[in-house]
Amino acid sequence: MIYLTGLLLLLLWLVCGRHGWVIFGSLAGSFITLMLLVMLIADEFNPVVVGVILAVVLVYWAIYPNTPNPQVRRTALVCTLMTLLLLLALAIVFIYGTFSYGFASEDTEEIEQFVTSIGISFPQIQVIVVLLSSLGAVAEASIAISAGMWELVAYQPQISAQRLWAAGLALSRKNLITAFNTLLFGFFGSYLTLGLWFLQLHYAPVKIINNVIVSTAVVELVLAFGGILLVMLLVNGYIIWQRRHQTR
Asked: Is 204 in contact with 111 (CB distance < 8 Å)?
């Protein structure tokens, strides 16, 4: 672990120079924040309250140190936080509505030696899992779209709101495919062994669809992709609104 961390730091320094230290510091801050989140939930603090507060801290670590342009930074921060609030509401509705939480029968071997009466709300934990799993993709999309649109504004200060909106949508479509592929590949990579389990044991399609693990993973994937769409639209609208506000 120590050697891999040192190798990561060395590679960051070789590729990014001094900025590599900033990137490494933001990664370390995110890691410490996640460890704090786990410890607070284990100490029976409310998972949703703690998760939302520390999700804001994670957004800061993901965007602020690594984005030198103040306009891009502000836009990405505001739009990412707005998206997380919307995702929080959607996650509560989807998770409680589909019962996508808790353990499945396939988890029995891993948890049989543990006491499952731990006094923690699994639906609330799943809400936070959805937020955290989508946070990285949402923050990345917000930075990419914000940087591209502000660069366009810098080169064409007199561009109209209609043309800027159209350019923002075109830029969003290009980034959307990459973001979706990232989420999709991560989904299949994480649940490849589960898929092999289903095939080898000849699960019926209906049983696969209604499996807790599958439904939970699908909800996470759908909400993460929805979060990317939301943040792209919010960034476009926010930049156009900000330009109008500045010209008045």
From this structure: no
Backbone CA torsion sign across 139, 235, 183, 56: positive
Answer with the residue of higher pLDDT: 41 or 80.
80
Local structure of residue 201 (DSSP, 8 states): T
CA angle 123, 129, 130 (to 5 degrees): 95
Pairs from 37-42 (Cβ < 8 Å, separation ≥ 24)? 37/128, 41/120, 41/125, 41/128
What is the reported pTM? 0.82
| Nearest one of 224, 38, 44, 226 to 135, comparing CA atoms | 224
Q: Which residues contact 197 (CB under 8 A, 6 or more apart)?
A: 106
Q: Of 127 and 200, which is predicted with more confidence?
A: 127
pLDDT of 136-163, one tens digit each? 888 888 998 998 898 888 888 888 888 8
